[in-house]
Design brief:
Two copies of one chain form a homodimer. With about 375 residues, the first copy, chain A, is an alpha/beta fold. The first copy, chain A, has eleven helices and 18 strands.
């Protein structure tokens, strides 16, 4: 029994104005009109199916505010059963989410059931390669390993954590020597050159039993609080389980990497490159759209006149770019972002500024069209 | 009797996407929410009033397709009587429009009545200076001159025609030595340096009688066709006169400058600088909006993060510009333009491309919002 567990978390402020608090990154639709969440759901089930394994109902761990959104999304891909849900009253990082998912799966399917943990906001293009990696991960998980998926790096990225690979454990599976936080550019370059490092993709595979046992060993506080929370949860046998604020607040805000993976000796790495893209910023989204000879690409209606390396994302408006170079144009019904690609990381500053100004556009997508001729210029921040 | 005559013509393709065939430049609203047409109407009456002259009802010469638009606009500024209209079945340049306006005014108020011809798509900031110029023009017109208004040049513009000033005729009024078409940059620089040239603003002042007499002398074909057209027009005594296609098509497509002003010996020039702006492109619109210390300016809601010299015009959407430099962002409900200011003249290429593609956005403002997730990328033209 393999249970895909989708971690459907929050914000993604670098993807404003498409991603906002009320409709964050997992719900963002790419050029093919599928959201990252829809893709992740289908990908998990497809991988398990390809391997000839038996899949349990997908368990989506998300904030209760996103429950109906999730169900709506999953209904769109014809998921006749939209899987099961573990609803958090607020965000508490990955360790609590994974620990509670493990309790849920252990209780429902026994400690030998395998969890396949998938963040809802990544893109994977090569399904076959991914299924192969999942197959190796499941085998290692059944041997008691906590498997983390490593992505073979293609550039000295400074936005990801890295895993230093250890000795081989089996076919395409190695140990992990250490986990390192986001490195500097120089360090990232040595990692890339060495061939011994891969990116930490935040995807995992383990049995419910191994996860809970290793957690009890290396993060007893998290383990104890998760147990208390789970056992105190009313209606935990249902398809949709709502965690209580009082019990969930016992859990510390900590990542699974920090709480467990960096400490456990049972960690194994399945690494590969399967067209993984973390959709971390608009430049990452741009990579998913084919460009023309001038480097221009568009999702939506665009007219390019002497434009170069211009990326347009616009769902309901015609965009004309005249003589633009190295520019990203991201349009939504109520807000528009214009920035060169090398400022993609600074988009979050817009969100901070809007928060500071109390402007609702940091949070929600407005659908109200203001009357023609109402003007406001927002002040520069301090 | 002074009759302000507004020439409310077409397109303004360099101001796409705000100006389109169905809602061209005269109807474009500036930051103060007044259209250029509204401003022109009010300016004409105000100047006449300031001078203590008696104004006749404003005569707007426009395409019949813009009739109701004009009336709606003029109702907005509380013009209890929206003036009178001369409706053309199609555009035929300025000579036919002015000749027919002169017939209309002569018939209604006699040949001594003065016409003050004002294009509907210019901006004038200094009302007092303008009224002064109009006063001098009226005096010269009553002496039988065909007065053209010259704008003292402030830069070697290549987008305007120039008038070489002649001998003084009276207080602030000179003759015209010659009219020159749009010059090259080098030539424009010598004009600017000489101090003897001014820009041809397309504003005129003359009595109905002088205009018709001089036209008969220098452009007999235009004069004859205009007479035939006017005298054959049914209902020409009404407040709104619709010209018939059959009769109007007798008139040649020719400008008043070419047909008459360049040939007549009765031309006088009243020159001055009264904050004139022809709103010829987005850079000209930008000049009407105050900028902050970084050179950024906005009409509508804008957030600037490390932006410089960025101009935002957006009526119903929040615009965030991150790290942009020398950029113009012009947003409308159905189309968006992004271009650096030095490409302002090339905006018309977008309109050509859209026409070529048969895309309605060159012509009309769509109000239909397409369903979420409908994508089309417009092909590059040949």
């Amino acid at each position: 029994m393999i249970v895909p567990v989708i971690l459907c978390g929050g914000a993604g402020t670098r993807l404003w104005p498409v991603s906002r608090e009320s409709l964050p990154k997992p719900f963002m639709k790419l050029a093919d009109d599928e959201s990252l969440l829809m893709k992740t759901y289908a990908r998990g089930l497809r991988a398990v199916d390809t391997l000839g394994e038996r899949a349990g109902a997908v368990l989506t761990v998300t904030n209760r505010d996103y429950y109906f959104l999730c169900k709506d999304e999953l209904a769109l891909i014809g998921a006749s059963v939209p899987g099961t849900f573990l609803l958090e009253p607020f965000g508490r990082n990955t360790a609590p989410a994974i620990a509670l998912a493990a309790h849920r799966v252990a209780e429902l399917h026994g400690p030998e059931a395998v969890l396949l943990i998938l963040p809802a906001d990544h893109l994977i293009e090569d399904d076959a390669a991914f299924a192969g990696a999942v197959g190796r991960a499941i085998s290692a998980a059944r041997e008691g390993y906590l498997v983390t998926f490593g992505i073979s790096p293609t550039a000295p990225e400074t936005g990801f954590g890295y895993i230093e690979l250890g000795e081989p454990i089996g076919e395409g599976v190695t140990g992990a020597t250490r986990f390192v936080e986001k490195p500097t550019r120089e360090v990232a370059e040595t990692y890339l050159a060495s061939g011994r490092y891969c990116w930490n993709a935040g995807m995992f595979c383990f049995t419910a039993g191994s996860l809970l046992a290793e957690l009890a060993l290396h993060a007893p506080d998290v383990a104890a609080a998760a147990k208390t929370c789970w056992e105190g949860t009313v209606g935990r046998e249902g398809a949709t389980v709502e965690l209580s604020s009082a019990l969930f607040s016992l859990l510390p805000d900590i990542s699974i990497d920090y709480a467990l993976m960096e400490r456990s000796r049972r960690v194994a790495v399945v690494s590969g490159s399967f067209g993984w893209n973390d959709i971390g910023s608009w430049t990452a989204v741009r990579e998913t759209v084919p460009a023309d000879a001038q480097g221009n690409c568009a999702v939506g209606e665009a007219v390019f006149v002497d434009a170069r390396n211009t990326f347009v994302m616009s769902r309901d408006r015609l965009v004309a770019a005249v003589g633009t170079e190295h520019l990203m144009i991201i349009d939504t019904p109520d807000a528009l972002l214009i920035a060169p690609p090398d400022r993609a990381q600074d988009v979050k500053q817009v969100v901070s500024r809007l928060k500071q100004l109390g402007h609702e556009a940091y949070k929600i997508h407005r659908t109200v069209v203001r009357p023609w001729g109402t003007y406001t210029v927002l002040e520069e921040g301090p």
